[in-house]
Amino acid sequence: MTxxxxxxxxxxxxxxxxxxxxxxxxxxxxxxxxxxxxxxxxSSIIEGFDLRLGEAGGIAVYAHPDHARYLAAxxxxxxxxxxxxxDTFSLEIPHGGRFxxxxxxxxxx
Amino acid sequence: xxxxxxxxxxxxxxxxxxLFINGKFTDSQSxxxxxxxxxxxxxxxAVVAExxxxxxxxxxxxxxxxxxxxWSATPPGExxxxxxxxxxxxxxxxxxxxxxxxxxxxxxxxxxxxMGAISADVFRYWAGxxxxxxxxxxxxxxxxxxxxxxxxxxVGVVGGITPWNAPLxxxxxxxAPALACGNTVVLKPAEHTPMTALELARLAxxxxxxxxxxxxxxxFGPTAGAALAAxxxxxxxxFTGEYxxxxxxxxxxxxxLKTVTLELGGKSPHIIFDDADLEAAVATALFxxxxxxxxxxxxxxxxxxxxxxxxxxxxxxxxRSQQVKVGDPMDFATRMGPLVSEEQLSKVQRYVGxxxxxxxxxxxxxxxxxxxxxxxxxxHEPTVFTEVDNKMQIAQEEIFGPVASVLRFRDEDxxxxxxxxxxxxxxxxxxxxxxxxAHRIAKRLQAGTVWINTWHMIEPNSPxxxxxxxxxxxxxxxxxxxxxxxxxxxxxxxxxxxxxxxx
Lengths: 109, 503
Hints:
The complex is a heterodimer. By secondary structure, chain A is of the alpha+beta class.
């Protein structure tokens, strides 16, 4: 996760009143929202079905198992665009940013 | 009398829009607004009231009251007349609606200028349907005289959550059928592109649609959208967007067991056989892919070409891709405008990088246009990858931009196998002169729509929807009536005696 994404996540967490709210990233796909992380409540993950790809900013990252087959999970990081909105239900959107996927640069480059 | 529509005059170049609730334009309860930005030059084109849960609550209450009151008391013939009046106004305002749509989302004005007429056609189709909704009589299966019949009733309050890629038409798809079937509507348009949905509300009010029958509440997904999806006063949600949000909506719908229809994107195979006419195949592939800068969920993004035609197709397709006129969407000569947003541009750029890394061959495009007048917009060149393997991410994931993945196939079985090997199933297409083969393949492809020697044929009378992770339910056509109405069975005893079992 990039520093910019960490800052956006901190804003979401600060706004989640009373604490105790746990989050997860689910990599989405299709139509206007496209293949980008959707930040959702941990309770939205379907246990035993969704595939855990790893962790970003202390938050577990999941994908639909059929989608996960094509995601090179070791190659991307979660970044954020500031001042950008999006169409999804991703929880960071009212906080002035949008999580996006970025490829890690090739080793040695 | 419908509510008064707020004049939407320009202020410093940016238009001002309010929420439309219970027949009136109104600020959001929080007083918050957000800006809608031109994808051409990032200028602010509209300042829009930002709806949230309290506004959704107010809109749903208005829709519920209208459903139980005025709209239930409006006979189907009167509903039809109102829908026809809305259609006339959409057509009369087509030029202005097209201009606003282009400003807001960047689709070339050549295409958006026809959206008013296309939207009018949808309203007219559904105006006809309003008077043709009926139940059936059913004979009793047991001995005796009974009359059984069904009443087809509206579901009640329908929530629509629309995407940004064809804002007016998507708003119309969610609105016209629901109204025709006797429902009232709360619409949450995409935050990137709220203008024309609010213009639709204004025109509907002008046509005389009663207060509360159509409410439009722009806002963000996790706030306004989620409030609508979870709302116990909403009976049905129709959503178009990506699949995790679709899944979240299904989870939220569980609160009151509202029904849901989902249209969630695709990675549609465009299968071109050796016997296809080369120029026609190339022209159709260009249209299937670059229309709306590739931002169409049913775009033909995986182009499968049979090996005998592959090299000639690629040569001509690349040549023509390089000639696509990319530019300011307000120019009638432009065929391809910018992508809608920075997020979208960033995603397309990421996939171009992925495609190179995966070993696909970049044959043209791959970057932003050199034209300095486009430098501030979210523009991307028409981009063609060849020698793509179906296992690559650029073959599997929806890029939603002007990026073609061209694959090679051997024969019919190979084409079907590759075509169906994807998590989506929204659309597919075949180009061949062989009539038998075309129909055989149409049957075998796992997709909600199959086009033979054409692309993007979507009519108000034809069901549209997906297989697999492209969602469920169908929009348009008679099939949609099932999603927007429910049946009530009535039994009447016609026998002269009474069965007194407990005598």
